[in-house]
Amino acid sequence: MADEEEHQETELSDNQKIDIAKWFLLNSPPGEIQYVAKDLRSVLRDDNAYQMAASEAFPFYNKTHIISLQFPDRSGDVLVSSFSEISEDEYLDPRTAQVGKIDHVKQICTDIRPAKDEELPTPYIEEYRCALDAEVCKYVAEAYPKATRLSPQNFCNGSWRSIWNIEFMDELQTVEVRGKMQVGAHYFEEGNVQLEAQHECKDSTMFQSPDDSSFSLANIIRHHETEYMSSLETSYSNLPDSTFKDLRRKLPVTRTLFPWHNTMQFSLTRDITKELGIEK
Amino acid sequence: MEAAMGLMRRMPPKHTETALTALLSLLPGHSSDLLSQVDQPLKVLRDGENEKEFILCEYNRDADSYRSPWSNKYHPSLEDGMLPSSELRKLEIEANDIFTIYRDQYYEGGISSVYLWEEDDKQGFVACFLIKKDGSKDAHGKRGYLNEGGWEAIHVIQVGPEQEGNANYCLTSTIMLSLTTNSDASGTFNLSGSIRRQMKADLPIEDGHLCNMGKMIEELEGKLRNQLDQVYFGKTKEMVCTLRPSPDLPSMALPENIKP
């Protein structure tokens, strides 16, 4: 085959290798980047290129996937995200007022320190944040069961990410809410099937006391996420009879299996249509 | 090679082509292994003579040209491109005609091509049945639900020589698909995937090769469609419902105080 000749010409440069390695890492399904990294290393056979790619891809992946890491002393968890980022490897947990030091490639929190004053919100904002945190925690505890972790041994992975941007508008006395929900799932036993879904929404409420605002904001979040969840279920239940049917029907339009034993009839009708010139 | 296949199992199926290209450049020594184990998205050319489209694959390729099943000519034209024997060509013409009807009945659109060729050393032959359909509402999506929808089926059958009235058929089928719906109310919803399965059978030659191959393809294609729908899509749905169980559904484990 011609492949053999092409080998000689296509010696990859270091930069090309790093770009390819980054592409694989960044396209890892939720929770699978470590498995991808392992396979990638043995395909790449170039540890320098791998290290370079990993040092760039992991921080980006961890932040976009908002991974949650436990503090080494188990006093809490820190979310790795662009919102909690203090420096590339330091992330703030406002609940415990601590900053976690992150090893991006190992995906662990290696150290903690108390947050400095300037890293924390002002007391006025903190009052709202704290009240909102309490309400959202309550909601999260009821809506997202904690026990279910990723289970790669069952060839199944998935993640739900929601980002809620809440803007308190002083002059208008309103609170503007923007939500972005991203859901992914991967099943790969003897195959590879992935779900990628996302939805954005907007809402608003009145600017009230910290407790009252937090209560209505948590309700808004609950409402939109529950609604989105049921729209996902609707999308799934529409598959068999509408969406999937547009790709391939379960049965032929004739509603009986194809008459392979009797295909002569088709040859005859085709000859006739050809003769009559009524072919499509 | 194992690690390469591991990567292919994890990369989003809609990026199969990019992933394969990347692996080919990293592992040039394994290119034939990779190309035989990873199916690529199917491409299409137009046969000017018939104004009909045909599907490209390794099995109708010679150098940089592809043979049309409709005119039996290579595109772009090739002086002495490989052709099937006249006997096999006869069966190929018939297979393309019948498979067009089969495809229309199941797919209500799309493109199909069948290629046959002799095995180098053995007495049997190999057949490749291909289907490609764009089910989006702008293309062949009859019901208009899909913003994007691609389905590709690749069926390769090895047919052994006659033995006491029977022939051995070994079918390998791959399905690759992607479907996306999009609406203001529920955002974008995309499912994509690929699976591959095998099926073997000894069947009487008197029924005809086309009938035997067709039945096997219909059976396995139906099975794969069902598995994608029930098992694979079902598992991703299960995953989502585990992440965020719907309160509307009767919960598996009711809180203690609700139990009678």
TrEMBL record, chain A:
BP-aspect Gene Ontology terms: actin cytoskeleton organization; barbed-end actin filament capping
InterPro entries on file: CapZ_alpha, CapZ_alpha/beta, CapZ_alpha/beta_2, CapZ_alpha_1, F-actin_cap_asu_CS
GO CC term, one of those recorded: F-actin capping protein complex
GO molecular function, one term: actin filament binding
Keywords: Actin capping, Actin-binding
Assembly information from the UniProt record: Heterodimer of an alpha and a beta subunit.
Family membership: Belongs to the F-actin-capping protein alpha subunit family.
PANTHER family on file: F-ACTIN-CAPPING PROTEIN SUBUNIT ALPHA (PTHR10653)
Role, per record: F-actin-capping proteins bind in a Ca(2+)-independent manner to the fast growing ends of actin filaments (barbed end) thereby blocking the exchange of subunits at these ends. Unlike other capping proteins (such as gelsolin and severin), these proteins do not sever actin filaments.
Protein name (record): F-actin-capping protein subunit alpha
Lineage: Eukaryota, Viridiplantae, Streptophyta, Embryophyta, Tracheophyta
UniProtKB/TrEMBL annotation, chain B:
Subunit structure: Heterodimer of an alpha and a beta subunit.
Free-text function comment from the UniProt entry: F-actin-capping proteins bind in a Ca(2+)-independent manner to the fast growing ends of actin filaments (barbed end) thereby blocking the exchange of subunits at these ends. Unlike other capping proteins (such as gelsolin and severin), these proteins do not sever actin filaments.
Origin superkingdom: Eukaryota
Family that this chain belongs to: Belongs to the F-actin-capping protein beta subunit family.
Source species taxonomy: Eukaryota, Viridiplantae, Streptophyta, Embryophyta, Tracheophyta
Any one cellular-component term (Gene Ontology): cytoplasm
Annotated InterPro entries: CapZ_alpha/beta, CapZ_alpha/beta_2, CAPZB, CAPZB_N, F-actin_capping_bsu_CS
Organism, scientific name: Lactuca saligna
A single BP term in Gene Ontology: cell morphogenesis
Compartment list: Cytoplasm, Cytoskeleton
Range of residues in the leader sequence: none
UniProt keywords, alphabetically: Acetylation, Actin capping, Actin-binding, Cytoplasm, Cytoskeleton
Protein name: F-actin-capping protein subunit beta
Entry's Gene Ontology molecular function annotations: actin filament binding
Main location: cytoplasm
